[in-house]
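Quick question, first post here. What does this chain look like in 3D?
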Amino acid sequence: MNLLDLVLALPLSGFILVLALPRRNENLTRIVTLVLSLGVFALSMGLTIPFFTKGNGNWFVTDVPWIKNPEIRYHVALDGLSLWLVILATLLTPISVLISWKYIASRVKEFYAFLLLLEFGLIGVFVALDLFLFYVFWEVCLVPMYFLIGIWGHERRIYAAVKFFLYTMAGSVLMLAAIIYLYIKAGTFDYVNIVDLIERGRLVFTPEEQLALFLAFFFAFAIKVPLFPFHTWLPDAHVEAPTAGSVMLASVMLKMGTYGILRFCLPLFPQASRECAPWIVTLAIIGIIYGALVAMVQPNMKKLVAYSSVSHLGFVVLGIFSFNQNGLDGAVYQMLSHGISTGALFMLVGYLYERTHSLEIKDYGGVATPAPVLSAVFLITTLASIGLPTLNNFVGEYLVLQGSAQVNFTWTVLAAIGVILSACYMLWLYQRAFLGEAAESLKEHMHDIKPREFVAALPLLILMVWMGSYTKTFLPPISAANSRILEQSKTGIEVRVEQRGPRRVALSEDRP
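> Answer (accepted):
Ran it through. Tokens below.
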């Protein structure tokens, strides 16, 4: 058992252990879950060592038989694409435990057990290299999130949980059918072997087969992103979920979709990926602008942040389907940055809700007077979310726009509108909620940030500045993994932009 196996096994063991704890001792449950999740995070930091000492590649590989017939293997490994996503999941789990310390007062044992099970599933999704194993982890993630929303959510929690479950299951069934078809064609579920067969020309799909398989995978991932117009489950899920559920959903679970597109759609179906790129980019740009416009008119803080996710993740999809190094690097960086800044936003909105039991913006105003530190933390997070230079979102959005400009400058202009709109709705939210004169009724309930709450927010604040100011910590492993994906997704048609006089002319049929 290597370090990655241990990082994967500990949350599952913790899930079983927490379920075995006595129900009456709720503080013991909280402490055990916090210690376990912190231990998993500490161990996960050791996963970075090979990437900075030995270089990039697949590390911590475990490939052993699991089921004989059909042949399914426990095949997991870590590369530069999955490394930071795994660490994001392990970081946000103890943070979710901390922010739920006082908020979750019923069925405490089950809540923390499901949180650990969710962490197990998320890590598994990002490291599985057997298609069937990947599908198992994908479905494992669905179960605890369904219960987190359905049991500990707000008034319409059952509706939101069922809608979330049905949307995800609809895409999952399509993906399972495609995985089974791939197994029939290739004789294996192993992702590495399938990619190798494709690269050597021993596994060939007709254009119709490749398009159908691509769409089956893509729709499953697009629903999870969520890409417009498959986004309608997201606002309901966020509004009804408990704070920890919203944080894990926005920060990590949505990245399952964009990760799946990068890991599976591009290398396995390169021709179909490029053929479908124009309409996918169109949907991404619509999502960027539509999500921002809808966020601007939301009276509910959680819905506003949820629609901002639709907009921000449109940038990720745009970067992926630019098919160049800057675009892919920006997409992955934006995935991580969105996980940090939007996770922090949901956390801070949760802090406000705990004090006033309201998510309506109109019920606030002047929060900066009774809670100056909380207001300062919210302002930093707001500036990070809108992409202020030296903060994290700026780097990802800049690289995505640079990558899209190399292919089609019109895409960049349209996507940049979303950046402007994000500043509008986030700063307007801050103005309405935190500035002005505080009502006496608000002053009675509003107190400043507590030490436990600040400890939970501090790592995210540090990362906002660190990722925005010192990108060399994170980008080298990402760039190496993306270079490999670009190599695998080549189809003989390159896209480049040439400078001719004062105009930029895009050439899309340049064959080497």
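The longest strand covers residues 59-67.
DSSP finds 21 helices and four strands in the chain.
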